[in-house]
Structures are given as structure tokens and as C-alpha cells.
Amino acid sequence: MPDLLAARSLMAMSLGFHIIFAVVGIGLPLMMVIAEWRWLRTGEEVYLTLTKRWAKGTAFLFAIGAISGTVLSFQLGLLWPGFMAWAGPIIGLAFSLEGFAFFTEAIFLGLYLYGWRRLSPAAHLGAGIVVAVSGAASALFVVLANGWMQTPRGFRIVDAQPTDIDPVAAMLNPSGLFQVPHMILAAYAATGFVVAGIHAFRLLRDPDNQFHQRAFVIACVVGGVSALFQPVSGDILANVVAKYQPAKLAAFEGQFSTESGAPFRLGGIPDLEQGRLRYAIEIPYALSLMLYLDPHATVAGLDAVPREEWPPVGVVRTAFQIMILAGIWMATVALWGAWLWWRRGSIVRSRRFLQTMVVTAPLGFLAIEAGWTATEVGRQPWIITGVMRTAEAVTPMPGLIVPLMFFGVLYLFLAAVVAWVLFHQIGSSPREEPLRRNRGETRPKELTVRAYGTEKKPE
Amino acid sequence: MNLELIIAGALLIALTFYVLTGGADYGAGVWHLFARGARSRAYRALIDQALAPIWEANHVWLIFVLVLLFTAFPPAFTAIVTNLHIPLTFLLIGIVMRGASLAFRYADVPFGELHTQWDRLFALASLLTPFWLGVAIGTIVGGLPAVSGNFVATYISPWLQVFPFLVGLFTVVLVSYVAAAYLAVEAVDERLIEDFRWRAIAAGLAVLLLDETVLLASRNGAPILWDALTGTAWGAAVQFGTATAGLAAIVCLWQKRFRWARLCIVGQVTLTLWAWAFAQFPYLVPPQLTIYNAAAPTLTLQWLLLALGVGALLLFPSLYYLFRVFKQQAMFGHDDPPPSGEQRRKGGHT
């Protein structure tokens, strides 16, 4: 395996692993804070149980996110020293701000998790809110840095070196500004749907369990509202891509030749030899209409850029389609949920809706992985669009296949243990109808023991 | 004062905080290797209580060091990550293993027999991470000349030397020493306090010994360090200060004045780190890259400094709050004249 490919694979693996935990670190604190707020408002203990359980999940997944994020900050340099030497002074500001956001998140998460008895209820909720906000702020700064790789700004090139560097202009690059809402909404949608799916699964067997009902409703609201806004933010982002990275958009849409009145193509197999998309379902004029609000607008195709500057069309196109389909499906399910709420006043009573939520649960994360693949593979062959090729940035260190294999095994191992821990954490959630304060017949003791996870550890 | 200098100072401060907080967390893990028998359970409880709320925040200092380095001094960062690819990868593996084993331990899942394995992994990773950090630092101070030789000359021989390995060993002992002193303050069980008192004394003696060994080895391994510490007045003063702080710490430990001991140790570690930094001043990566010739453009440094200033206003009160809530007795309390378990336990809950 060539070193460039090994480096790209390793980076992709590290990012693909980290993004899951980063996303949960944004989404889960929000739901945890909502549950705690409900607990303070209503005094229903089931909300407190829920808060503590989500906090437990946040603690664990944030820790994995923190270490996988550390891996990334090292690997940026270990694998792409050419890129970091060039881009460090330009986008380092965004990473510094992200560092502060991460610091804040770590500090207040520590306060939140271990401060139940040491902080006042308001201070505790406040700590939770800081965690949720700084989690989103981390995403903001990291995605702005990523956006700069798509649409580099804030410098001039003189003798192949950046001059007149303006880190703020670099941070406020067009792609980043529109990627940010898309990513944060994605985080809320993906986390909301996966949590909702888990509780829906439990509700199918235990329909009157109030713990799962409350959890399901909060997760559905967070996930559903985000999923409804997501197509809008995606459409705006696609316009930005069309404007600044036409080759990438052409790969997304399977648009091989420049044409006016371009159709929106669903499915199909890209045929690179003949330069066309086979067997696709076409919706006439739809792409031109979506991008430029004009059915006859011209959409640039892959033929507008030299062949060697094409991204890998097959991968990009497939990933993009997966993301679009998953997103549309999630938005549809969210609309269905809204309709249920409006017409029947409850979303926990429809078995069919619960079943659908179980099936939909992983789609948010699938969409995130796919969308991220489309974004980053679509940027190829550039590491900084139009400025530096990925091949120029890679480390001269040979034998990168070795760390690739090693980290591959490491991630598999970590993923297996994470799955096992989550299985246990989720599996120990209360099965019976949990207590409300005015009901004496439930067994609060057992519930609290399980919920707080204080089972006696065997030595 | 130059912007470069201020940011290099911030870099050094961040590294100092990392060694004193994050480093100590690793040191606590190193002592886990020595936890045997019935007391290992009490030890685990102590370390869980001591580390759980703060280890992630402590870890972020390292991220800061990285980010400051690649933002403000990109050529230095590039030189380090390229030539030290292999030891840094080992360092990274240690960080991942240590963090993962802590996360899994705290996940409150009945691992059964596996709990022992996590403990073992935790202890081993806690040992390896500071070692490789020390190797990286030792290699940098020894100098990274731009070589265009073969694989071994570029990627292996710079760090596969006596001096970097000695610095690695020194780092492990140093963080263990810091951890032992912290834990002696935080422990409530009389036997644990005694354990850590003796461990701290032993580690303190080892640090003093290794300090001199590293210095002697630097004559060949890192001449820049040797020249500065033996050939200048401030070098002699720093050596004297470090040795005084080290001896005072041991005396305080002997007399069970743990808070004074901790203060001396913090001073000793800070002096050690700063002696290294000032010895290689103005070089970031000898023999070519200095704070001045590796610095990023002025506008970047200005914005970075602004971000650091504003961020510090946010960060330090938050950190103070964190330590105030969880380390009240340890950070802001006093040594009890007769350290009886009952009184300490009361103190721990205030």
C-alpha cells in the first residue's frame, strides 16, 4: 500500500472513529440538561433518573471522544506535516479557540458528573448548560477549520508561501460558516434519533414505562426538530459547494457534463469511461431549481475541471446519496412524529411509530459518516482546495502501513469495548414502571441502584 | 517584549501545568504497579476519587501545548512531528490506553475479572506515556539537525540514544514523585498516607540522583543543556535552587508536613522544566529553529495572544472553581497537627 493511501486511510479511520464520540458529546449533554431542567421544574424523579443515566453515557463517551480527539491533534502533524507547516498560522487560531472550548467542556463536565452533592441545583444545571454550549462551540471551531480546507481564505500566496495572513478572515470562510449549522444540527439529529430508537425499542416491550416514555419524548424532540431543519441547512450548504467547489458538487450529483436545466439524479452507477451516470432516476430541472431557483440555470459538470482534479466520483457520489436519503427519511419520520403529536397528543402510543424509530435509529450516524466522507473525499485531490495537494502534505516517514494496521486493531478493540459497555449501561435501565412520587407500589430502591450504576463491582 | 517571547512563555506555562497536573495523573497510575494485596483496593478508591473529576481537564493542557506549537511555531512543530514520528506514536498509544482504561473503569460496568486487566493496562500505560514524553523532550534538547539520510538516520537514531532514554526515565520518576506527594495530602487512611509518604521520599531521592545523572549525560547527549547549566551563573543558581527545593521537600515529607512538601516539589519540578527551557533559549528545536526564526507572522501571533488572554479569563476561574469544589481540603486546607483519620475525613467533605 502506498504511504499516501495509508496516511489517508489512517486519518479517515481516526476521524470516522472520533466523529461518533464528538457528536454524542454535543447531542447528549443537551438532552441531559433538558431532562435535568424537567426534573427541577416538575419534581418527577423519573427525570432525575434519566438525567443521571444520560450523564453516565456522556461521561463515558466524552472520555473516549477526548482521547480520540487527542489522537487526531497528533496525527494532523504526524501524517500531514506539510499541511500543518503551511496552514498552522492560518487556522491555528480556530484550533486554539477549540482548545478553550474543549477545556471548558472538560472542566464543567467534571463538575457536573461528580458535583451532584457539592453544587446547588441551579449551579449544577448551569454546569450542564456550559457543557452543552461548549460542546457545540468545539464543533463550531473545528468545523470552521475544516471549512478553510474547502474554501481557503485569509492569505495570499507569494513564492508558494502564504503571506498577508489574516486568521480571522480564514476562520470566517464561506464553506465553514455554512458547514457549522449543518454539522451541529446533524449532531443533535443523530444523537436524538439513536437515543429515541433505544427507548422506542424498550417501549415496544414495556409500553407503560414512564422512564422510557419521557426519554423517548425528549430524544424525539431534539432529534426531530434538528432533522426538520437539516435539509434546509444542507440545501444552503450545497449552494456554497456549487459556488466554490464545482467539481465536488458535480461529483455529489453525478453531473458529468455542464448543462443547463440539470435534473436531480437519484441512484445510478457512475461510468467514468464514458463520463455519464447510468441507470439513474432523473427529476427534470430539479438540480438547477434547487441550486439557483431557476429551472434553466447552468450547473457546472465534472468536465469543467481537468480529469486529474476530479475527486473519486464513485465514493463521493455514493456517500452523498446515502446522506441525502437518510436525511430525507429522518425528516419524514420527524414530520410523522409532529403529526402524531398534533393529532393524538402523544407519540409514545403508536406502535408503528415506535417500530419506525427503532429502524431509523442508526441512520443519523450513517448520514454523518457518509456526509463527512462526501465532504472530505470530495475535496480530493486537494488538502487545501486549489492550493495544496494531499500528496504534497504527507509525511516523508515511510512504512505508514504499520501505524495504520496498529491503529486499526486499536480502534476495533476500543469499539468492541465501547459497544460492550454501552450494552451494559443501556441494558441496566429500569424495566418496570418507575416511580412517581405519589405512587407507593413501585420499588424505588432497586431502581436507584440500577440507575446510578452502583452495582457492586466484583474484585 | 516580543510577541514570540510571550507566546513561547505561554507554551512553557502550559507544559508546566501539564506536568504538574496531567503528569501527576500518570504518576498516580505508575504507583498502581506497586499496589499489592488488601491495600490495593483502598488505593484504587483513593485514585478514583482523586482523578475522576479532573483528569480530562488536566489532559487538555497537552492539547494546548500542541496547538500553541503548531499555530505560533509551525516549523518547530513540523520538525518535531516528522523526526519523532515513532516515539510520538508510542506516546499517543500510551495516552489512548491510559484514557480508555480510565473511561472503562469509571463506566460502572461489571467487568468481573477484567477489572484487574484494566487496572494493569492503566498502570502500564501510565508508565509508558511519561516515558515517551520524556524521550521526545530529551531528543529535542539534544538537537534535531535536518538530516537527509536514510530511514534510520532520520527517524530512529535521533531518539534511540542514552540521553533521551534517561530523560524518559527521569520524567517517569518525576511524575511519580509529584503524584505521591499529592496523594499523601489527599489520602485519609493513615496507612495509605504512610505508604505515599515513603514512596514520595524514595522517589524524591531517585529524582535528585537522576537529576545529576541526566546533567552528566547531557555533556555528550545535549551540550546545549550542559553548557548552560554548568557554564553560567544562572545555571549554577538554578541547580542550587532545584537541589534546595528537592532536599526541603524530603525534609518536609519526613516531618509529615505534606502541604509544604508539595509546595517544594511543585517548585522543584517547575525549576527543572524552566531550567531546561531557559538552557535551550532561544532555541525551540536546536540547532536551527529558534523562537524568532520559527515564529508565525505577526498578525497570527496577535490574534493568538488575544485568544489566549480572553481564554485565560474564562479558563482560570473555571479551573479554580473545579479544584475548589473537588480539591477543597487538598488545595486550600492546612496540615492537621496530629493527622488523625477522623479529622481528615471530616475535612474531605467540606
Tags for this model:
A: two-stranded antiparallel ribbon; 15 helices; globular; B: 350 residues; mainly alpha; 80% helix; disordered C terminus
N-to-C series of helices and strands of chain A: HHHHEEHHHHEEEEEHEHHHEEHHH
Based on CA inertia axes, which overall geometry of chain B fits?
globular
Compute the number of strand runs of chain A.
10
* Strand arrangement across the biggest beta sheet of chain A: 1-2
Number of DSSP helical runs of chain A: 15
Summarize the helix and strand pattern of chain B as letters.
HHHHHHHHHHHHEEHHH
Percent helix of chain B = over 70%
First-to-last CA distance of chain B: 44 Å
Topology:
The complex is a heterodimer of chains A (459) and B (350).
Chain A: H1 3-42, H2 45-79, H3 81-114, H4 121-150, E1 156-158, E2 161-163, H5 167-171, H6 174-205, H7 210-244, H8 246-253, E3 259-260, E4 264-266, E5 269-271, E6 276-278, E7 281-283, H9 286-292, E8 298-299, H10 313-344, H11 351-360, H12 363-377, E9 382-384, E10 388-389, H13 390-393, H14 401-427, H15 444-452
Antiparallel strand pairs in A: 1-2, 3-8, 4-7, 5-6, 9-10
Chain B: H1 3-32, H2 39-51, H3 55-72, H4 74-83, H5 85-106, H6 114-142, H7 151-156, H8 162-186, H9 190-221, H10 223-231, H11 233-254, H12 258-279, E1 283-285, E2 289-290, H13 298-326, H14 328-332, H15 341-348
Antiparallel strand pairs in B: 1-2
